[in-house]
Amino acid sequence: MTGLLVVTAVPAEAEAIRAGLTASAAPAPPDGTAPPDVTVLAVGVGPAVAGAATARLLALAEAAGRPYRAVVSAGIAGGFVGRVTVGGTVLAERSVAADLGAESPGGFIPVEGLGMPPELLGGGRTVLADPGLLARLHAALPGATVGTVLTVSTVTGTAASTAALAERHPDAVAEAMEGYGVAVAAAQAGVPFAELRTVSNPIGPRDRSAWRMREAFAALTAAAAALH
Ligand SMILES: O=C(O)c1cccc(C(=O)CC[C@H]2O[C@@H](n3cnc4c(=O)[nH]cnc43)[C@H](O)[C@@H]2O)c1
């Protein structure tokens, strides 16, 4: 069995995590035979590309007889104001495909409410984090906010959509664009899953000047020690 697979959307996130892993690594055994315990790869933005790439990585590792022991979707995220602070760290109890469903004049209908046969929905639009993996990450990151992390295909950018999303998901602390896709790939491969995010921006009316990328990448580097 190989180690942990950490997938990010973009290379800058992967580099921030690798920097934290290097800074916190135990000394390597002198014979140089130990396999890497954590592999960090940037797989792309959005649930489809991240999910497909993760599924391929898991399948290739399994076919080679070296399956990963767990997968973590990691990177930056938007945070719900009042629920998490910009620069803060978030661990997902569940990753939820927030926009998987249908609009209607009466509001958003989640995919589970559309009358489709349950076997076509997989686990629905919610994937729970592996409890053991989540507990281990939380023990290493006691300051992290634990809650629902939404997966969206469109970054939320108006007051109205922010309010609607916050009302539909009172337990959601953050939104990002990959977690649910990675979670489905992990679930189908039978591999434990968790999602780790650091908050780069408040969710709300689009305002790039409010994004704090440097803070969020620094928080990712600091959080990476928990992944050993
Ligand atoms: O909105 C933009 O103009 C923009 C331009 C360049 C890059 C980005 C991103 O990298 C954001 C998407 C990326 O980061 C995660 N993320 C960060 N904040 C949010 C958010 O408020 N809502 C959804 N996703 C967010 C996401 O996982 C992507 O990988 C944006």
TrEMBL record:
Residues 37-211 form the Nucleoside phosphorylase domain. SUPFAM superfamilies: Purine and uridine phosphorylases. GO terms for cellular component: cytosol. Pfam families: PNP_UDP_1. GO terms for molecular function: adenosylhomocysteine nucleosidase activity; methylthioadenosine nucleosidase activity. Keywords: Hydrolase, Menaquinone biosynthesis. Its EC number is 3.2.2.26. The keyword Heme does not apply. It comes from the Bacteria. Pathway: Quinol/quinone metabolism; menaquinone biosynthesis. Gene3D superfamilies: Nucleoside phosphorylase domain. It is an enzyme of class 3 (hydrolase). One of its GO terms (biological process) is nucleoside metabolic process. InterPro entries: FL_hydrolase_MqnB, Nucleoside_phosphorylase_d, Nucleoside_phosphorylase_sf. The keyword Hydrolase applies. It catalyses: futalosine + H2O = dehypoxanthine futalosine + hypoxanthine. Belongs to the PNP/UDP phosphorylase family. Futalosine hydrolase subfamily. Catalyzes the hydrolysis of futalosine (FL) to dehypoxanthine futalosine (DHFL) and hypoxanthine, a step in the biosynthesis of menaquinone (MK, vitamin K2). This is Futalosine hydrolase. It comes from Micromonospora marina.
